[in-house]
Structure formats: structure tokens, C-alpha cells
Design brief:
homodimer; about 200 residues; alpha+beta; Glutaredoxin; Glutathione S-transferase Yfyf (Class Pi), Chain A, domain 2; four-stranded mixed sheet; 4 strands; about 50% helix; about 5% strand
């Protein structure tokens, strides 16, 4: 088994944190996105969608998509549980994972990909107006999340789950667009400090 | 239990098809998106993200996000299985569900929301250039999917799963952007004809 990875990209980081929380070690193979290695013929044979992370099982089967890889490991090693235990908790974790991904992670990525000249080869065509349109979405979601975190410790409930992994990676990813969590969002900051202390965050 | 729904919108349709496949009946409450009822104070109290579908359980707990609602019903009634049985199948279904959603469903939605003047109150601000940029993404993904469907009956493997639900709803949703699946994509057409025959498609 091996995991195609990139040290600084946010999606591979989500998988590395997930694996660290599970205590699972998988050999990493680094893909140089700056050199567009993920668009090479060789890597395209591994993942036709030309993206990392991609997990290759011992029989050669490839699983791509961050959340698909995480769910694979949740199924083969259920503990510690990160996707929810009861039907209701599973639904709530999925709901929050998706809210954070669709309304924070993807908007941060859109700002970066459509406004940074260094991303011109990665995002074709860049639409700067779309990058600009996503800036207020990022801040609006953080305001909403702050209200939610006033009432509970973690994004999807009383305990740490994969929704927190997507959220902390998204918030840290905001460095790439030179945006900081506003100071008045004290519940987001409290949550961020607690989550950032977890050993898995260094993965 | 009740499900906030809208007859013509694609996300509520995904949930209705899923429930029909499971043989589960849930009372529907229609939300008039044309009148922006989903942005009303009353509906915002139900789902602060102002979107349908939203499932309200008997104790008042709300689950929003299409896939979270589907996963809730998969957990409470596992058969017929729609999210995968083994760890590998679960990962493959999730991978394909996400590929279709991110690379077909969302691009179709972007074309509609950013280019149709009737969507101006729904999508603020509209960025027509972004709508245009998504048109080739839709066709490129259908080409890719056609190659995949040359080798297997359904989107994620040999049997019908939730990945097919997202895919058929996405393909049918292309009517809203006046785009048809190109005739030469014969495997997509064969798959579409087979899936469209399922009784759940009328839900």
C-alpha cells in the first residue's frame, strides 16, 4: 500500500491527519505539484483525475478523493471512530464535514486558484471575479461557525471528528490567501487552539 | 419526521430517489424556492444554510445536506445497500459519488446559477465568466465517464449505488442548461437508459 501525497497541499494533509488519529502508517510517495507531476502521463495512469491524494492498495486498486480514502480506513479500522457512531451522529458528522468543505474549504481554494498568478497553470481559465466573489463567502461561513461553536466543543458535536479535520485544514489553508480568522470570532479561535494541540496536526 | 423538499430542484430529487430505492416513505413539505421561501426567517430557523433538502426528526433534530440525509437512512435501514458493503466498495462508491458531484453536478449548477438571469436573486453575485468556464468541464467529465462505463454497468461498479443517483440527477439536470449528452458517448447513453427505467426515478 502507498499514498501519493504532497507536503503542503490541503487535501493530502487531511488524509495524513486522519491516519495519525487512527495510528495508521502508510508509505508516502511525494508528487511535485509545482512541476505539474500530477498531470504527467505516469501519474494520470494512477489517478485519471490528476489529483492527490491517491491511495494504491497492494493489488493495485486505486482509491482517490480525500474522503473516500478516509472512509476506507474508517471501515478497515473503526477505532478511534471519526465518522460518527450512531446513525444520527454519522449524519451530523457528514452534514458538518460537507458544510465545511463546500462553504469554507472550496471557497478558500477558489480565492487562491483564481487570484494567484502562480496558480495559472493549475486553474484554467482563472476567473479573478470568481476568486473575489468567494472572499466574503469565507468570512460569512466563519461567522456562522463561530455561532455554532458557542454551544459545543467541536464542529459536529461534543467530540473530535473528521469534520474538525476538514475545518482545521481549511482554516490553516487561509494562510495561502493571506486571510486571518477575525479576532472577534472567539469561539473559532478557542476551538482552533484546542485542535491545533493534537499530535496529529504535525502529520 | 418530515422532509423539506422542492419538486424540481436536483438535490431534493436525489433524496427522493434514495428513499424510493429503500422503500421508505417520509412526509414531504414543499419549499417554494422561486419565492425565496428558503431564505425566509421561518425556514432559516430550520436550516441556517437556507437550502433544501432538510430532514426534521421527531425530536426536532434537523439534518441538512443531501448526502448526510441519505447516510442517515442507510444507517437506520441498511438494505438495500446503496453506499457499499465492504470497506473497498464503500471507498469506491464514495470516490465516484464525489467525482460526479464535484466534476459534473457542481459544474452544471455553476452554469445555471451564473448564466441564467432568473437565478440572479439566488446566486449573488453572478459571475457569467465562471458560468462559461464550467461548460467545458461538464463535457470533459462526461467523456471521462463514458470511458469508465465502457468497462462496467454502473458508475461505481457492477451494481446500482448512490453514485448512480448523483449521476442520473446531474445528467437530467443538464436540461436546465440546455445541454444534451453528446450522441457519441454511447456508454453514458446505455447506462442512462437502464437507470432511467428504475421505478425510483419517478420519485
Amino acid at each position: 500500500m502507498k499514498l501519493y501525497d504532497q507536503a503542503r497541499a490541503p487535501n493530502p494533509r487531511r488524509v495524513r491527519i486522519f491516519l495519525a488519529e487512527k495510528g495508521i502508517s502508510v508509505p508516502l510517495v511525494s508528487v511535485d505539484l509545482g512541476k505539474l507531476e500530477h498531470k504527467s502521463a505516469e501519474f494520470t495512469r494512477i489517478n485519471p483525475r490528476q489529483a492527490v491524494p491517491a491511495l494504491v492498495l497492494d493489488d493495485g486498486t486505486v482509491i482517490s478523493e480525500t474522503m473516500a480514502i478516509c472512509r476506507y480506513f474508517e471501515a478497515v479500522q473503526p477505532e478511534p471512530n471519526l465518522f460518527g457512531a450512531t446513525p444520527l451522529e454519522q449524519a451530523q458528522v457528514e452534514m458538518w464535514q460537507r458544510r465545511v468543505e463546500l462553504e469554507l474549504f472550496l471557497p478558500v481554494a477558489a480565492v487562491l486558484r483564481h487570484l494567484n498568478p502562480a496558480m495559472a497553470a493549475m486553474e484554467v481559465p482563472q476567473v479573478p471575479q470568481w476568486g473575489e466573489a468567494n472572499k466574503p463567502k469565507v468570512l460569512a461561513f466563519l461567522e456562522f461557525l463561530n455561532g455554532e461553536l458557542a454551544d459545543r466543543a467541536y464542529v459536529a458535536g461534543a467530540r473530535f471528528t473528521v469534520a474538525d479535520i476538514t475545518a482545521i485544514v481549511s482554516v490553516d489553508f487561509m494562510r495561502a490567501i493571506r486571510t486571518e480568522v477575525p479576532e472577534h470570532l472567539t469561539h473559532v479561535w478557542r476551538w482552533r487552539h484546542v485542535v491545533s494541540e493534537r499530535p496529529s496536526m504535525k502529520a
